Amino acid sequence: MPDETTRPDETTRRKAEHVAVALGRDVAAPQMASWADVRLIHRALPEVDLDEIDLSVEFLGRRLRAPLVISSLTGGHPDVAAINARLAAAAEANGLAMGVGSQRAAVVTPGLAETYAVVRERAPTAFLMANIGAPQLIAQERRPPFTLAEARAAVEMIRADALIVHLNYLQEAAQPEGDGRARGVLDALRVIVAGANVPVMAKETGAGISFEQARELVGAGVTAIDVGGAGGSSMAAMEAHRARDRGDDAAAALGELFRDWGIPTPISVVETRAASAEVAIVATGGVRSGLDVARAIALGATAAAMGFPFLRAASEGEDALRALIDQTLLELRTAMWLAGCASVAALRGAPVVVGGETRAWLEPRGFEDELRMAARRGR
Length: 379
Ligand SMILES: Cc1cc2nc3c(=O)[nH]c(=O)nc-3n(C[C@H](O)[C@H](O)[C@H](O)COP(=O)(O)O)c2cc1C
Prior knowledge:
Layout: H1 8-24, E1 38-40, E2 57-59, E3 62-64, E4 68-70, H2 81-94, E5 97-99, H3 104-108, H4 114-122, E6 127-133, H5 148-157, E7 162-167, H6 169-173, H7 185-195, E8 200-204, H8 211-219, E9 224-226, H9 235-245, H10 249-257, H11 265-275, E10 280-284, H12 290-298, E11 303-306, H13 308-316, H14 318-338, H15 344-348, E12 352-354, H16 356-362, H17 368-376
Parallel strand pairs: 4-5, 4-11, 5-6, 6-7, 7-8, 8-9, 9-10, 10-11
Antiparallel strand pairs: 1-12, 2-3
Flavin mononucleotide binds near residues 205, 286 and 308.
């Protein structure tokens, strides 16, 4: 079998397929523990003016105009460069942070670098995050590990402000061509953290981060964790669709079975915050409104991110993207006003009641104190 350095087309084609599948099929995981489990307490006397509310937030040493991140989605195929360009222009115009999709394709095939580099051209001052995959940090059967120099090259490609290392073992498991080796990955991550010239964020991609794993990641030195929980776009579902399209019924069945595998996002935020008071947390996975963003922050997130909603809006055009951002920020501002919070810091300290499946998970896991304290804040 040729390895990826002699067969760059496969990675590249997969990029375009992922976007087409996400836009054309149902890749949503069911929300078992949903954002609706998380209730902010209404303040009948807000004592703050609606237009006085400050949405800005400190994120990895920089100030974003709002605690909203455009999640890592794409790059690596000529067809998706326009999506990256539009997303970047929106990040720049609204002072948001943005990630690009995995840059493996462009590290292997430098001709594709422009499909990522376009984000810095369109967003000269926005907070941009480079993206590489944890499975690529260790030797796989058919290719050597990424070197530190290659990780730095990914950062340099978009003059990134931070480097994301994504954790996508569920997706790898659902791909017959997926990388199966994971032994030594935490040590490999440590090397990247120590050698990167920018802060490193570990990012799950739909299966969530537990308390225990958050501890390990913080121990490895990451500055931020994107909990990437279950309940939003499912990478297993995406791979199931791709498998079905090529007639691989066994792989399709495996992907379908694991569609809702993982730790739901709100739970993951609570567990990760319990593991570290300092680490920056991005809540991704099924965030579908500004109210969800507010709920995530009240649970302890620093910011929240959306993937699919941004992808769909960017595929429709600039107006759709602008409407999505305006609506999301209006919903966030409304939630903050009704909860009497003039700032994101105040929202982080606002009382919040957690019920449903989210509570049913967190109690036996030993997070009763966190839930009790969150419900009584400010009293
Ligand atoms: C088409 C598509 C491609 C993605 N590619 C990447 C990627 O390359 N790297 C990464 O870290 N996450 C990737 N993701 C995951 C997203 O960043 C995000 O975690 C996920 O979509 C969950 O958020 P959502 O429920 O708001 O869509 C991808 C998601 C989609 C839908």
